[in-house]
Specification:
The protein is α+β, with helices and mostly antiparallel strands. The chain is built from 3 helices and 5 strands; from the N terminus they run ααββββαβ.
Length: 109
């Protein structure tokens, strides 16, 4: 992939947003935060404190191919449902900071 050769990586959300737009994707990145007493409010998600090392990458406007587990066709150990876009996921996982985890969320318009 040519992007892997020309990119050096970055740490900022604007860097990754620009990178995705150059690849033809419309994205928004959320930095998740853990639930904290005195800061968080009723109704907010109770998220583990290690979530500060995770990004949620919301990809809008593309259709992703889904693989659904099927009896007789699928094998033991395969996921019941898997989906994703290998291009953007590979580029992000190769260039993101090593200590972070990217969770990809796909939304059709």
């Amino acid at each position: 992939m040519l992007f892997k050769l020309t990119e050096t990586g970055g740490l900022s959300i604007p860097y990754f947003t620009r990178l995705a737009s150059r690849l033809g994707y419309t994205i928004a990145i959320d930095e998740l935060r853990p639930f904290r007493t005195g800061v968080s409010r009723c109704g907010e998600s109770m998220i583990h404190h290690d979530v500060i090392w995770a990004w949620r990458v919301n990809i809008v406007g593309i259709q992703v191919k889904q693989y659904v587990f099927r009896t007789g066709l699928s094998a033991v150990g395969e996921r019941l449902l898997s989906f994703g876009d290998a291009v953007i996921e590979t580029v992000f996982n190769d260039l993101k900071p090593a200590h972070t985890f990217c969770y990809f969320s796909y939304q059709e318009r």
